Amino acid sequence: MIGIRSVASHVPAGVLSNYDRREEFELTDDFIVGKLGVEQVSRKAEDEETSTLCLRAFAALQRKVAVEPAGIDCLIVCTQNPDGHGIPHTSAVVHGAIGASDRCAAFDVSLGCSGYVYALSIVKSFMEANGLQRGLLFTADPYSKILDPSDKNTILLFGDAATVTLLESADRGGSYWVPTRFLFSTRGQEGKALNNDSGRLAMNGRAVFNFSATVVPRQITELLAAAGIGADAVDLFLFHQGSRYIVDTLAKRLGLPAHKVPANLARQGNTVSSSIPLLFEGFLDNPAINRVLMSGFGVGLSWASCLVERRR
Amino acid sequence: MVAEVSSNVTVGESDYDTPLKDLGVDSLDVAGIFLAIYERLGVRVPDNEIDRLNTVRLIAAYMDGKR
Question: Which residues of A are catalytic, by number?
Fold first, then answer.
């Protein structure tokens, strides 16, 4: 069985404050804090690539756990904003940079905000099916590459970040987290609600909100029913940090108490597929937390949820 | 429904002609209001109409026209 051993992250030090843009976009402090939930968005440096962010996250992982690149069996990067124009794939770039072995599989997964949940299943299944022992799942989707600085819908919301999740065989012993049950969904006919057809990100905020507020609670209810548990048996609900408003709306629609629905987008913004692992990282070693539900939703339109449980 | 969906907003009869923005209803609240309208009343308001319906009275008149 493959489980999550550790998660590490890199949030670039560069930031743009939404308070500095109050006049430009007619914002109130209440809106910034209470509705967007984003006080500042993180920004990578101009000369940093997607792979650069991955490498910084990997360095952070190595400070937590002994990870020898030569011992990595697979390396996956979840991104829709790869290095350069996408060839070679970003995971290959990262593979080369960390000095992983020729026997290491490396591929990218093209998904946005639902990406972490989808990719957890992909990597876990890939590793179990092929008898692999150690894998790295990176999320790195720096939207700063494609944002329109004059678009109020997006420029105040999206931030850059990268995370890396170390997945290992449970045979290694110790404490780990096992993703158990998954549900996956897609609604391609509404995909244009989030696109970069013009080379810049365009988001129909209303359509994305309507979609998220209706499909996500349904999927979560179905997942809990399939697992035979109620919401009270879940310690934390880790929602994709789309905005404070959508997180609060989901909590309200599911009848969840505030302490079970953490939010951490204030200091970096919506980091796309990195948002869930960024949240998860903060609770991994909390002994009071043993079962979490993750739910990612957005680009595609695509959504996925899973339960993840601690095993000792 | 406007007050129920929007936090920190109260709406009395004298507010029916006040622009929603002046009542403290922001753009995200507007999305919530029209989603609630669709879910409870079955009326889907096209995006190009939503910007025009910026008072409680205008929204109510639109709903009346859809009955």
Answer: 113, 240, 270
- So what's the ipTM on this one? 0.77
Quickly state the pLDDT bin for A125 (edges 50, 70, 90): very high
Task: Choose among A28, A36, A205: nearest Cβ to B31.
Answer: A205
**Can you give the pLDDT of all 67 residues of chain B as single tens digits?**
666 666 566 677 778 888 888 888 888 888 998 998 889 888 888 888 888 898 888 988 888 887 6
Cβ-defined contact of B31 to A204 (cutoff 8 Å): no
If asked whether residues A243 and A205 sit together in one domain, one would say yes
> Identity (one letter) of the amino acid at B52?
R
**Which of B8, B28, B50 would best serve as a mutation to test chain A binding (most A beta carbons within 10 A)?**
B28
Calculate the CA A10 to chain-centre distance.
12
Boundary-marking domain end, from A150, A172, A194: A172
Q: Is residue A78 within 8 Å of residue A111, measured between CB atoms?
A: yes
Nearest chain A residue (CA) to B27:
A206
The three-state (H, E, C) secondary structure of A75-123, written as one string: EEEECCCCCCCCCCCHHHHHHHHHCCCCCCEEEEECCCCCHHHHHHHHH
Looking at the complex, does the CB of residue A243 fall below 8 Å from at least one CB of chain B? yes
Cβ pairs A/B, distance under 8 A: 34
Q: Is the dihedral of CA A71, A44, A250, A235 positive or negative?
A: positive
Sketch out chain B's domains with CATH numbers. 2-66 (1.10.1200.10)
Whether A305 contacts A183, CB under 8 Å: yes
- What amino acid is encoded at B53 in this protein? L
